[in-house]
What we know:
alpha+beta; 4-stranded antiparallel β-sheet; 1 helix; globular; Mobile element transfer protein SpdB; SpdB
Amino acid sequence: MTANRRFRNVIRIGPVQVATSYDDRGSEKHTAACTAPRCNTSADYDSRAAAELAAHTHRCPVR
């Protein structure tokens, strides 16, 4: 089942978007997702700093 999330505080760092949302348990989560074609990288983090660091250091595996 897919999560129905309402994202807020969305920023873009290169091809990666970082956003904040609440998970199904009500905890605040921060997501970093790459929007480049054929790059399916995304991850949830507990802190905004970790998500932004992941966005800054992301390298797409597909060139």
